[in-house]
C-alpha cells in the first residue's frame, strides 16, 4: 500500500494532546498512511469546506455532549466502531 497523507484530528476532540497523538498513530498504522505536515492544513480545509454548516455543528458537539453516564458522544461512537 502506498503511503498517502492524513490530516491531524482537531485537538478539541481529545482532552489530552498525548491521547490525540496516540490515536493519530494508530489510525495511520491501520490504514497504511503517512503524515505530511505541510499538506495537512490544506486537506483539513478541503474537508471543512465540503461539509455543510449542520455537519460541522454535529461534529463539534461530539466531544462536548455527554450521555447519562457521563460518556461523550465521541467516545460512544469510538466504542461502536471497535472491531
Fold and architecture overview:
The structure is a single chain. By secondary structure, the protein is an all-alpha fold. It has helices spanning 17-31, 40-50, 53-61, 73-81. The longest helix is centred in the N-terminal third of the chain and has 15 residues, at 17-31. The radius of gyration is 14 Å and the shape is globular. The two termini are 22 Å apart. The relative contact order is 0.13. The model has no long low-confidence stretch (mean pLDDT 78).
Mean pLDDT: 78
User: Structural class, from secondary structure content?
Assistant: mainly alpha
Q: How do the helices and strands follow one another from N- to C-terminus?
A: HHHH
Number of strand elements: 0
- C-alpha-based Rg, rounded: 14 Å
Characteristic terms for this protein:
mainly alpha, globular, 83 residues, 53% helix
Give a brief outline of the structure:
This protein has 83 residues and is mainly alpha-helical. It contains four helices and no strands. The model has no long low-confidence stretch (mean pLDDT 78).
